[in-house]
Amino acid sequence: MTRSSDTDVLVVGAGVVGTALARELGRYDVRVTLVDESDDIGNVTSKANTAILHTGFDANPGTLESRLVRRGHELLSAYAAAAGIPVEPLGALLVAWDDAQLAALDGIEDKARENSYDRARRVEVADLYRREPHLARGALGAVEIPDEAIICPWTVPLAFATEAVHLGVDLRLRHRVTGVEPRGDGTVVTFGNGASIDTGWVINAAGLRSDVIDRAFGHERFSVTPRRGQLLVFDKFARRLVHHILLPVPSAMGKGVLIAPTVFGNVMVGPTAENLTDKDDTASTPEGIAFLLEKGRALMPELLEEEVTAVYAGLRAATEHDDYQIHLDADQRYVCVAGIRSTGLTASLAIAEHVRGLLFESGVDLREVRAAQPPRMPNLGEATPRPYQRAELVASDPAYGRILCHCERVTEGEIRDALSSDVPARSWDGVRRRTRAMNGRCQGFFCAATITAQFGDALGGIVGADVGERA
To answer: In the beta sheet, which residues pair with residue 57?
Structure first.
């Protein structure tokens, strides 16, 4: 690119898709800027999802989503292994509870094969209860998807953003787009903080607000409906009850409520699927909690004997279309990456690869000048040793042996690292997602004061009382 501008490519939205795009393009001989309206990366849809690495067995065959989820599973599995992102390949079981659902299992296997996934297989009742002895009585059968996995949803976008920064991407937070002015050979984008950026290309990965930006470029291709998903997180004592990702048989109303372990050692139930109008409404509701408790009790009664340690909600960017909305408008030097919904975590690297291909096909001069080098990320998972369990690490730096958050076994060293990393935490929520601190049974009641005393200056002087408001 030879045009004189502030940057060659401006990526709007630093969720899991936007950070993947920035990481992908950062390898090439173009200047890349990544902006987000929040004070952190992965701070909206990407921080509140079901944390499943999907195979794509149940996607709509022939769609772009189906292809990119399959490819994304392959790419992200390899990337997670290289970066140390926690992944547990537990496999999934789609459980049928009535005759209609049992009859639907054949169609699920057929759909999986249409999506080039040939490892789905029928599980009879006796084998199902041998594998999941705590499941409620009355199941009629299941289909196993052995390659479905659970993954850390927070570390993925953080790893992408960290690698992007290492590759020279300019990351700018607290930049909310307020206007775009296309100029034929580029666009001037203005922000609510008074800044502006003159860019050669704009890539719209703004999630819930992607339709607003798309309309600013003169298009009426889709509308984003925020779809709220509330979830319950059960205490770690519940983890012994669940051995697979337990999925419902999809119906005309949607995919339904699942039960799944998390890489953090908890068990999760959800999500709800509530279409809203407010793109900022992530509140949990009494009705949503009651619905999930009822579903959890029906699927696994013993689970309801354990404590719920957290309730949260996320918003998915649903549109009126059944596929991703990825469009390149060469005359405007604009790419729209929208309607990614709940499969964005899995498909993120494949989406980035696809968009890079579209740019190349449109004539953008992309010469690879930097090799991808996944950063080694802090381990937040329970399947491999945490820092306090690693004697050699504690011996080399005693801060990794001083536990500040006892519920989640988070050490002083981990919190220090989160506040001084290349993409540092600058809020309590940022610390939570980078370390698990304050995410346990007490929700920060005991550890917040200690963390504030030691790291309050790095967090901008936040006081302990603020943690209680967020918990």
So the answer is: none
Nearest to 351 by CA among 388, 359, 440: 359
Instruction: Mark whether 54 is an active-site residue.
Output: yes
d(CA 18, CA 177): 15
Q: How many CB atoms lie within 10 A of CB 68?
A: 28
Q: 130 CB contacts (<8 Å, ≥6 apart)?
A: none
Q: What is the pTM of this model?
A: 0.94
CA distances from 207 to 5, 43, 89, 143 (A): 26, 11, 28, 32
Query: Both ends of the chain: CA-CA distance in Å?
Result: 47
**432-455 pLDDT tens trace:** 999 999 999 888 888 888 888 888
Q: Give which of 84, 58, 6, 424 is closest to 249, Cα–Cα.
A: 58
| Among candidate residues 163, 49, 149, the one with its CA nearest the CA of residue 383 | 149
Q: How many CB atoms lie within 10 A of CB 281?
A: 13
Measured CA to CA, the distance from residue 447 to residue 30 in angstroms comes to: 44
Q: Which position among 54, 175, 244, 354 bears the catalytic label? A: 54
